[in-house]
TrEMBL record:
<feature type="domain" description="Ketoreductase">
    <location>
        <begin position="7"/>
        <end position="192"/>
    </location>
</feature>
<protein>
    <submittedName>
        <fullName>3-oxoacyl-[acyl-carrier protein] reductase</fullName>
    </submittedName>
</protein>
<dbReference type="GO" id="GO:0048038">
    <property type="term" value="F:quinone binding"/>
</dbReference>
<keyword id="KW-0560">Oxidoreductase</keyword>
<dbReference type="InterPro" id="IPR036291">
    <property type="entry name" value="NAD(P)-bd_dom_sf"/>
</dbReference>
<dbReference type="InterPro" id="IPR002347">
    <property type="entry name" value="SDR_fam"/>
</dbReference>
<dbReference type="GO" id="GO:0006633">
    <property type="term" value="P:fatty acid biosynthetic process"/>
</dbReference>
<dbReference type="GO" id="GO:0016616">
    <property type="term" value="F:oxidoreductase activity, acting on the CH-OH group of donors, NAD or NADP as acceptor"/>
</dbReference>
<comment type="similarity">
    <text>Belongs to the short-chain dehydrogenases/reductases (SDR) family.</text>
</comment>
<dbReference type="Pfam" id="PF13561">
    <property type="entry name" value="adh_short_C2"/>
</dbReference>
<dbReference type="InterPro" id="IPR057326">
    <property type="entry name" value="KR_dom"/>
</dbReference>
Length: 251
């Protein structure tokens, strides 16, 4: 799939952390980037930074779990820039309650954001990618989908269930959208962001002991892999679930 001279990417959950790092790295690669997230000042700041790095940035405010909102946001990108070449499905929420504590509404919300949100954005952008005979979709799963969550007192079963679903979605869509659209998923390990720092600091040495490369990951560690999958070179990679975890999964 040859990319145009001014390719367009959408990154969800782009206000901070991994999403912002992905948006910035794509901007460095020459992408115009639409940063999607809930309404916040962090989103505006991220878009301003991305706009200073690359050829253009716009803000998309909305809830990934609402398909009509997502469809309207995708249409606004096409109206502005004419096409969508790359989708990075990064938006997600955590849910630390156990099965005995969680409510049905809390479980539903976790699935709605972490799994249905991926579906909504894929459904919104895939027709255009198929029509233009080219596109890249990168979904964000987690090594927790395979491990059941980190060994701690905090339950993450709802999050784990959603992230496992993302892997199934990725493999199914890789078959359905071939040959012109690739669909892959990334599984981050322990990544330090402003949202995870307190939890990591409480167990930093114990976590690092589970990682053969001996350090906690950074958002940039994820972003460089996303940017690679978004470019022309990996045109024979689809349906893959790629761990980016410093070897944590194999350990």
């Amino acid at each position: 799939m040859p990319l145009p001279d001014d390719p367009v990417a959408i990154v969800t959950g782009a206000a901070r952390g991994i999403g912002r790092a992905c948006a910035e790295e794509l901007a460095r690669k020459g992408f115009r980037v639409a940063l999607a997230d809930l309404d916040s000042s962090d989103l505006d700041a991220a878009a301003e930074a991305v706009g200073e790095i690359g050829p253009g940035a716009i803000v998309l405010r909305g809830d990934v779990s609402d398909y009509e909102e997502v469809q309207a946001l995708a249409a606004s990108v096409v109206a502005r820039w004419g096409r969508i070449d790359v989708l990075v499905n990064n938006a997600g929420i955590s849910q630390p309650k156990s099965l005995l504590e969680i409510s049905e509404a809390e479980f539903d919300r976790t699935i709605a954001v972490n799994l249905k949100g991926h579906f909504n954005w894929c459904k919104a952008v895939a027709p255009g990618m198929v029509a233009q005979q080219g596109g890249r979709i990168v979904n964000m799963s987690s090594i927790s989908a395979g491990t059941g969550g980190a060994p701690s007192a905090v339950s993450k079963f709802a999050y784990v269930a959603a992230k496992a679903g993302v892997q199934g979605l990725t493999r199914g869509l890789a078959k359905e959208l071939a040959p012109h659209v690739t669909v892959n998923a990334i599984c981050p390990g322990s990544i330090e962001t402003s949202l995870t720092r307190a939890l990591i600091n409480a167990r930093r040495e114990a976590i690092q002991d589970t990682i053969p490369l001996g350090r906690i990951g950074t958002p940039l560690d994820i972003a460089v892999v996303v940017a690679f999958l978004a470019t022309v070179e990996p045109n024979f990679i689809t349906g893959e679930i790629i761990d980016v975890d410093g070897g944590q999964w194999v350990n």
